[in-house]
Design the sequence.
């Protein structure tokens, strides 16, 4: 290596020796990272000389690799021991900026509606969190507390898809009692436990079972970000903590978006995107950009939706699932802009990518494979074609939306009641766009009471579009007058104006 290169990479000698010792011990970068509690990408950067080792890491590596203090000596010779934060000051200020709702309460996260144990299950606001019963099923025959990770598409921030065991729910509750309890726990146990809780909260939100999901997610998120800040202050990179924070921020943002609180949901998504970028978490980056696309569509902002979708597509061309998802979101953006050729082109590109997903895609995005994947893909296609057909009443395009939405409903798991409500309204609206009143009313009346009382912003938007289309086109017909009367009765029962 030239003198110039050595000056640019003062840690190259440390990295080269670390690589030789690791290989001599028969370990992969992933295995070594697991042994010392760091992600394999950090080990890779250390070995290439692009990263200074965090404080204390060389002391932990020497006994593992049998190097008798060699790495610690190299670290000491090459640079002073770090006594300040791992992250540069400006980066730390951005990553640990003030969060909505203030800091986590000093008395612990289990106060004021936070998580607690009732009847052997974690609960929030007095309502059991679906699936957190230790070693048993959740309410209504649902799945119990995860035995291992990944679970329901939620992967471990430390070990990806390695099948990590998780602590029991009561052990997780103890972590949430105070920031100090979290900081003093084993990193791996805390990460595994909070990831298992995230899986349960995500499932509860999707199945509309627990009113306190948002409050719990935001309280845990404050604790995790505080934990990340504390880890950074010791001179270690808070890699797993930032990944965990990004995932909780996405859940909190989705819950806020569901309530129509677009400002708060945007804040959470943007915080999550920063944390995901800082921890090289492409999975969360892609998912969060998709959520920002959805927010833009709710505001009828086609240009912003396309910007986010295109940014998603540029994340990593090697990941087939990211490309497929980006094409689906672009199709929806172009439909909102009424660009039929581009919308259809991206639908076709998405379907080609989805047909070629490989093992890595399935590990990173299992929700985009199998029946779940078909449900999500056809839902996006149906939404795009319906948006494209709505303004001009293009019957052929609207019938395409009917077919895609019907296929999505056919692959939808019964437990996902909020999604079934949304898709049933979209099916009714697609029939209306095609000029077929009777099937539109047949679908609409099945869910009208649920839809009127729903507080989910996406459901409210679908219902408004359907109601306007039926009224404008067939408002004088008796069956539509009956439908409108049913809507009014449902609103009165729900106590709505």
Sequence:
């Amino acid at each position: 290596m030239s003198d110039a290169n050595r000056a640019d990479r003062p840690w190259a000698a440390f990295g080269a020796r670390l690589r030789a010792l690791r290989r001599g011990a028969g370990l992969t970068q992933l295995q070594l990272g697991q042994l010392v509690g760091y992600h394999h990408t950090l080990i890779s950067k250390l070995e290439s000389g692009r990263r200074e080792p965090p404080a204390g890491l060389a002391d932990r590596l020497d006994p593992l690799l049998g190097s008798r203090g060699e790495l610690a000596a190299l670290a000491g010779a090459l640079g002073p021991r770090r006594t300040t934060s791992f992250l540069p000051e400006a980066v730390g200020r951005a990553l640990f900026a003030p969060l909505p709702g203030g800091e986590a309460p000093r008395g612990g996260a289990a106060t004021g509606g936070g998580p607690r144990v009732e009847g052997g299950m974690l609960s929030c606001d007095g309502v059991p969190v679906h699936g957190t019963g230790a070693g048993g099923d959740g309410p209504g025959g649902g799945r119990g507390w995860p035995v291992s990770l990944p679970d329901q598409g939620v992967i471990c921030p430390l070990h990806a898809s390695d099948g990590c065991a998780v602590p029991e729910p009561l052990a997780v509750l103890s972590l949430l009692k105070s920031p100090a309890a979290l900081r003093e726990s084993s990193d791996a146990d805390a990460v595994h436990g909070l990831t298992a809780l995230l899986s349960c909260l995500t499932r509860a939100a999707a199945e509309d079972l627990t009113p306190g999901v948002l409050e719990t997610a935001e309280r845990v998120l404050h604790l995790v970000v505080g934990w990340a800040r504390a880890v950074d202050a010791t001179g270690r990179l808070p890699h797993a903590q930032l990944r965990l924070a990004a995932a909780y921020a996405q859940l909190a943002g989705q819950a806020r978006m569901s309530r129509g609180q677009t400002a708060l949901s945007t804040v959470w998504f943007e915080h999550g995107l920063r944390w995901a970028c800082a921890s090289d978490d492409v999975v969360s980056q892609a998912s969060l950009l998709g959520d920002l696309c959805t927010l833009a569509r709710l505001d009828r902002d086609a240009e912003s939706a396309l910007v986010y979708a295109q940014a998603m597509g540029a994340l990593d061309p090697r990941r087939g699932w990211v490309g497929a998802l980006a094409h689906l979101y672009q199709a929806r953006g172009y439909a909102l802009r009424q660009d039929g050729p581009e919308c259809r082109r991206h639908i076709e590109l998405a379907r080609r990518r989805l047909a070629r997903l490989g093992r890595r895609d399935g590990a990173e995005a299992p929700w985009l494979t199998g029946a779940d994947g078909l449900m999500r893909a056809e839902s996006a296609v149906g939404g795009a074609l319906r948006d494209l057909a709505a303004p001009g009443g293009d019957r052929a395009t609207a019938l395409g939306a009917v077919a895609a939405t019907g296929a999505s409903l056919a692959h939808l798991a019964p437990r996902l009641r909020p999604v079934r409500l949304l898709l049933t309204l979209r099916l009714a609206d697609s029939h209306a766009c095609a000029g077929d009143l009777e099937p539109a009313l047949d679908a609409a009346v099945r869910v009208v009471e649920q839809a009127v009382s729903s507080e989910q912003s996406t459901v409210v938007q679908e219902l408004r579009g359907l109601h306007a289309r039926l009224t404008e086109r067939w408002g004088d017909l008796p069956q539509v007058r009956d439908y409108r009367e049913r809507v009014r009765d449902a609103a009165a029962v729900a106590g709505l104006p």
